[in-house]
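Second opinion, please. Pick holes in both lines of this record:
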Amino acid sequence: MGLNRASGIAALAAGGVWDLVIIGGGATGLGTALDAAARGYRTLLLEGHDFAKGTSSRATKLVHGGVRYLAQGNIPLVRHALHERGRLLANAPQVTRRQGFVVPCYRWWDMAFYGAGLFAYDLLAGKLGLGRSRLLSRAEVMRRLPTVKTEGLVGGIHYYDGQFDDSRLAITIAASAADHGATLLNYVRVTGLLKEDGRIAGITARDMETGSDYRIQAKAVVNAAGIFMDDIRHMDRPDLAEGLSLSQGIHLVLDPGFLASDDAILIPKTDDGRVLFVLPWLGRTVIGTTDTPIPTASMEPRAQEAEIQFLLDHAAHYLTRAPARSDVLSVFTGIRPLVKVKGASGTSAVPRDHVLMVSDSGLVTITGGKWTTYREMAEQTVDAALRVGGFTPTPSPTRELRLHGWTPRDGIDGTDPLAAYGADAPKVRAVLAEQPGWTAPMHPDLPYALGEAAYAARHLMARTVEDVLSRRTRALLLNAQAAVAAAPAVAQLLATELGRDAKWIDAQVAEFTKLAGIYRV
């Protein structure tokens, strides 16, 4: 069946009892849908917006164990994350890759301190490691990082972590879940929980495109709503206290010349104790991140002026070419759903571990964690849901489960603009060949062909211009101004694919243009 919204809506209308219903289409929800479907359970996932609309499309683009968590002494978290890092790179080579990092050191003792930590990082990864760390001379650091400041530089450490395209991975997981029989729907919002004798028995939901309402019976319900998980918990128990401490992190996107290297830079401790990354990503340079407590969750968080200036100032400390506001092509902001901990002083002190909860009524809630460990979180969540639903436990097959479009890593052409589609790339090329102009770029400053919008509508459940330009491609993150310029042509093409009218086109362009303002400084 694949990702197909019409057939998914038909499955809702047909009724019946689902084994698992999952609320939330971010990393954890999609992973849970894949795990449950791969075990053979009748699985439904509902997302009120688009898949990976929130936090899951705004990560730092790293598949990592967490060097700073190692410094904090959280060895179990780092070990689990490193093992999951290795599995993810093996299971989805088309959307992940090994990324080299250099830690430039300006004091001799930093060489010893960070070198010892990164060697421990390698040991914790075990046989799933990506390559050995090694010390670099001053000359080697300068060769690998031609734009790093050299005054006081004594040497550095080179190590490996993973990198990925987060929303592309999300869609890949969604397609994988559909391959295993799951039904996944975007723009269907959960409006309430059904109960029988005090136990969760299903949900109510509304199709946001048509306004149709549904009562959906389920043996188990999973709350994977991320930063909005308390909204679902309050449907179960309105008296519950808020369970999350929210923190946002921003990233600045610059042209590749600011880094001019295939290696990334890690500054493990800035003046105020934060971690700073300077990364090559999709032909751009990404600088991040911040850790700013915020009072409430928002689907479109805004970068604060102080955060933008912090990153610009600190990039200037370490790069020979100091970036200015006018150099920023895009700024994107993600919110971390951190579980509240008594006594924690600020969100940077809150653990990044995930938390799994089962309420008295049987609502299974999963929150916290990070992209790297999505698969492990999903496995544990399905295990809990099976207990709630009274199922005979079955083992998860996802540790070595190849994701949709899997291609051998040595068969991936890094220069191919369609490489992220993996084994589906020939299908994409066939669509691009259908119409004159579809192979042309959406915009001269973007690496995407116009016809990719048609493919996204037909096969990846893209419903809006934002879906295409923000998540099926990364145009909005790579260059917000270019994405706005591409919006009218994308809207016209989508209207043809989805059967929309001129009024819809105008509204879509206006909405996307307004949204893109958040991504411009």
About this structure: The chain has three domains: 5-55+168-243+347-389, 94-162+245-339, 419-517. The mean pLDDT is 94.
